[in-house]
Amino acid sequence: LFARESEFVKGVVAMSGLPPADRVEICFAGRSNVGKSTLINALTGTKALARASNMPGRTQEINFFTQGPDLYLVDLPGYGFANAPLPVVEKWQRLLKQYLSGRQTLRRAFVLIDARHGVKPVDAEILSLLDSAAVTFQCVLTKTDKVKAKDRDRVLAQVRTALAKHPAAYPEIVLTSSEKGDGIATLRAIIAGLI
Ligand code: GTP
Ligand code: MG
């Protein structure tokens, strides 16, 4: 699946702009700066397909990428970023919620959690939204290269405990480092299994 080239389709700012729901879709959600765009670049083997940046709030649209003919990869705007003007933040939040709860072909949401920080209240809010929308989600720990194994394991336990409260959670947590390439093959295999 990932041997094919990934292509950018479009950036969407309103539900009316979504591309036709004609294939399996998976999305990447998570707090601003957690590493969503970087992970998509690592998965697709490209350096700059999805625009990554150390400026939180870089991705402001819902970005659609094809991966082969049967799959959309979706890069979502980050949440929990307070530094943008409130009306702008509220607009993203609304769109994010509409998308996560209203997209028929959304097969799984990967919710990215920073390996240094664990599940924060804003994450828990998204997880509950996915529960109510009955969208299966799976947590991915990002930036594992930035923590010591001991601290990572403590965060992992915190994430496990948090997931136990969410019926839509898929129990396996994927540990990744886009920097080192750790977990990328595992995640590709999981995604391939969803088609
Ligand atoms: P928004 O679009 O603002 O929501 O952010 P995002 O979640 O798309 O984050 P992005 O991919 O832009 O990454 C944010 C920063 O984290 C960038 O400087 C990345 O280089 C860095 N980063 C992402 N993944 C990793 C990782 O696995 N390890 C390390 N060390 N840095 C990472
Ligand atoms: Mg981004």
From TrEMBL:
The UniProt record lists the EngB-type G domain at 22-195
* Keywords from the UniProt entry: Cell cycle, Cell division, GTP-binding, Magnesium, Metal-binding, Nucleotide-binding, Septation
Top-level taxon of the source organism: Bacteria
Question: What cofactor requirement does the entry state?
Answer: Mg(2+)
Q: Where is the signal peptide?
A: none
| Recorded family membership | Belongs to the TRAFAC class TrmE-Era-EngA-EngB-Septin-like GTPase superfamily. EngB GTPase family.
Protein purpose: Necessary for normal cell division and for the maintenance of normal septation.
Task: Return the PANTHER family for the record.
Answer: ENGB-TYPE G DOMAIN-CONTAINING PROTEIN, MSS1/TRME-RELATED GTP-BINDING PROTEIN
* Record-given protein name: Probable GTP-binding protein EngB
Q: What is the lineage of its organism?
A: Bacteria, Pseudomonadati, Pseudomonadota, Alphaproteobacteria, Rhodobacterales
